[in-house]
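FIELD: query
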Amino acid sequence: MPGHLTALHGLSSCIQAMSRAYGSLDLVARSDPESWRGSLQVLRLGTLQISTEESDAVRVVRTPRGVAADGHDHVFARLQLDGHARLFQDGRSTDLCPGVLAFYDASRPFDLVLPEHQRARVLMVPRPLLRLGEAEIRRVTAKVIGDAPEGPATLLLPLLSGLAREIGVSAPAAREELARAVADLLATLAADRLATTEPAEARAATLFDRVKATIETRLGEAELSPQALADAHGVSLRYLHKLFHEHDTTVGGWIRRRRLESCRAELARPTAADRTIATVAARWGFVSPAHFSHAFRKAYGMSPAQFRGQGPDG
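FIELD: result
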């Protein structure tokens, strides 16, 4: 996979390279630190980063101090290619063999033990792209994906691996589309892993949280609709409407409310003073300035211009 390739000679160079790529890390080698060898190949694609790492035995630790030092909150998806790994996070541990994947979260400490020479592909994705709530992310970390003899993961993991490999040799114009496909596959794998461990009675609540998370990442898309959300989450439109009805709201009403709240927050910021009201409205998915003004007045009892005129102390 093309990208910036760094040969790692000695543990100190590895700490620097991996911390640049992944966030602040501590590494401990079982053998002589200076004789330790590895390599790290990094490909950055906008918000997505794909790395291929190969190394001698080592222990990789992200401590509470490391979390506080850089504030990174991305999620890792580790696809083991050769050798074995043992991952610890959130009070759980899981063993990774070649061909399986596990998620772990940079916003919390983790411990990754690599007991032998190994090779892995590590995908680093912003947490909103997984379309999971915070509690859901915690429930999928340090759980192996792909060890069952059947299920979606048996089909999706080879596809994910192929796409990740293909991105590196594709023309730049195609990489953005491929990166989106990779992120969607990761979201699907995470959702499937969550569903297999969650009680049946909690799945509706989980889906509701996932749909809300998707809405947050797509608020600015004017074409966002209940049907688009139903398609994205593999449910019927009727079921999606029922899900929101059980929370005393509607899909369209939820989208409209979150768009209005986002517009209101932006209009209140002094840094947005040079943006027209129409620009702010369009940024959050309102196609018609007149419709936005009417909806804003109905929600807040004043026009957007009157609200902005109040200033921060209004």
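FIELD: remark
The two ends are 55 Å apart (CA to CA).
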